[in-house]
Amino acid sequence: MAKICVHAVVSGRVQGVWFRHFTREQAEASALTGWVRNLPDGRVEAMLCGEEKAVRHVEAWLSQGPELANVAEVVSSDAPFDDELEGFLIRDSDAV
């Protein structure tokens, strides 16, 4: 099966509601690599990499998010596969 990466930016009420933590749980349960972080403007950004079906599953979950979130929009795009990523990290807001 093909391996892909998806870059996603989630807007709405997505900070202060454990969005990053639950994204990491979803990603790890789906054996994805990548990262998630808060953006200074209140959005959340994520990079999801792994088997296409698993990536698409977590990408769809982002539209719903955890119980306390209120997702307004998810803008996602395909990204080059990064086989150097290990695990799934919660990054600091200022990490590049």
Task: Provide a brief overview of the structure.
The chain is α+β, with helices and mostly antiparallel strands and 96 residues long.
Number of domains: 1
Which residues sit in consecutive blocks of at least 5 with pLDDT less than 50?
A: none
Number of helices: 2
Task: Write the CATH fold name.
Answer: Alpha-Beta Plaits
User: How does the major sheet shape up?
Assistant: 5 strands, mixed
Radius of gyration, whole Å: 12 Å
Structural class: alpha+beta
Oligomeric category: single chain
**Total beta strands:** 5
The first-level CATH class name = Alpha Beta
Outline type: globular
User: Which CATH architecture is right?
Assistant: 2-Layer Sandwich
Helix content: 10-25%
EC number: 3.6.1.7
Keywords: Hydrolase
Active site: 20, 38
Catalytic activity: an acyl phosphate + H2O = a carboxylate + phosphate + H(+)
